[in-house]
Task: structure prediction
Amino acid sequence: MKKLSKDRLLGIICLLLTAFIVWQTRQIPIRSEQFATVGPRTFPMIAAVLFAICGIYFIIKKPEGPDKVYMTKKEFGRALIMWGAYLLYLALLYFFGMKIAAPIAVFVMALLFGRGKIKWWQALLYGLIFGVCFYLLYVYAFKVRVPRGIIKLF
Amino acid sequence: MSEAMAIAFAKVFSPLGLIYVIGGGVLGMILGAIPGMSGGTASIIILPLVYKMDPGLALALLSAIYIGSTSGGCIGSILLGIPGTGSSIPTAWEGFPMSKRGEAVRALSIAVVCNFIGTLPGLIIAMLVSQPLAAIAVQMGQWEYFSLLLLAVTMVVALAKDNLGKGFVSVALALIISCVGTSPIDGAARFTFGNVYLRGGISMIVILLGINAGRMIIEAYAKNKVIDASVAGKVSRFKFPKEDLARNKLNIVRSFLIGVITGFLPGLGGGVASMVCYAMEKNSSKHPETFGHGEPDGIIANEVTNNAVIGGAFIPLVAMGIPGSGAMIYFITALSIHGIGVGPMLFREHPDVVYLLYISSILAAIAILLAQTLGMPLFPMLLKVPAHYLYPAIIAVAFIGSFLNVGNLSGIVMSLAFCLLGMGMKYFEIPEGPFMMTYILANSMETKLRQGLVNGYNGFWDFLTRPISCAFLVLALISLLYNLFGDKIKAKLSKKSAN
Result:
């Protein structure tokens, strides 16, 4: 089966988005007759029209040579790992708050970026020092409210 | 006016003001020097903390970072051959070969002086021009303002010159995301899917942290972008490039004017200006063959122009609330956090903030000149900051920024989603520039359009029958048609003249 070009795929996504936006836009309440012609539905409809025109254009347009590669499979896998590290940071913030989440997240990401160039204890030490400085700076110097987490360990 | 200026002076020269301006300038310079990073990253991280700052001083800090980053971009370009910022690409073409043949100090000295030559007069021009322009702009009604914003958006689409279709996809994406939350004027809930966290809309900061900072670091990890900083050799002290500057008076004036004008036009920014100036200097040179092999004239053209853009970009921001370059988005966002709307009324309602922006920018330019001339031997050190320490710290700070901006963890969830959207946009080669610009203008556009229709008597006709509004719409149409068919017309004309 012939592989779908990136532009055609984008065209299909644009048309799907058009359908979704039109469907959702029709559910936006109009509170006054004054807003029947131009109201809260106007801008989403403009976006839908733009998506529709672009979608049709990309579907009928002839592909210009092979698609440019954004990331290889291997690179994409690594991107997912880093995004997973972000997710881990979010989960740690939710459960334990910034005090614990920041040092652990920085430790994990420093190990990932280090790729063997730094030892695990160096990454851990960096994570701890960073975490303490970061917490003190935000809580005591900037006096901002930071995530505290639902599980309070200390 | 004098009272506002006195307040601005007092704030800038207060201990905190000086720390913001000098510290911000140096931080911007360091981040601008590191390839792959930019002052934009620092600005994005600082934005969530802006609500704790005085609005004027917040702008001073952002401005110092912006100027420092633009000036620092030349360091990585000259010493490593890798541009620190997009507008430093021609500097890398000329500066790195000079560096390889042992002229790194000459190249850096030229760049440092030209940064200042571009920045300072540009800021003074902006200071002089923006007030009269704001006085004119303040007389515009909703109709003229909407048409002007529409013109800005059509010009921003030109950023996607290689693929206008994708530029329009970028605009459409920004329009639909800007609709999330409650609509202006009547407050109808749109695209919230019953989720209480979406009712307030999606903050620009959350988007910037996801699409820029989050995605950039994912890409750096995935693509294993390792910078070989060992290429940067030792650098000795600054030497004033008297002869190089004396030879290039015309080049400097021309590059400066192009920079200011390009900065004034919405969305074009330093990247476009530097390419135009570099090409002009090369074409007008008596020895174009030396370009690309370490030609100081190319560095002069590029560094003057990309710094002149700073002053040019301030003019539409202060006078009309339109971002002249991508970095201006941070300024608009910072002011909006304090409930200050940018636009023609800014000068009238908050003159102290405007003067503070200009005075701090001038001070930042001087501070950066001093830091670069005195600290030149330390430049190679700036390039050796290890990614495995820098990037994790940025992400840790950035995501807390999302939390602070929204007030709960939904900000981080949204940033994570925008991180994926940013990668999707890169995958499909959808440019970010039109997205950011349209997103920052979309709410004003919608409000002005609807106000115009509510307050007018002839519906859409009012936009065409008012002369200034009509002129903006005609220009928007011309800009759109030029973007769509300009290249084809040019190709046809050149074919005809060849025949």
About this structure: Residues 6-60 of chain A form one domain. The radius of gyration of chain A is 24 Å.
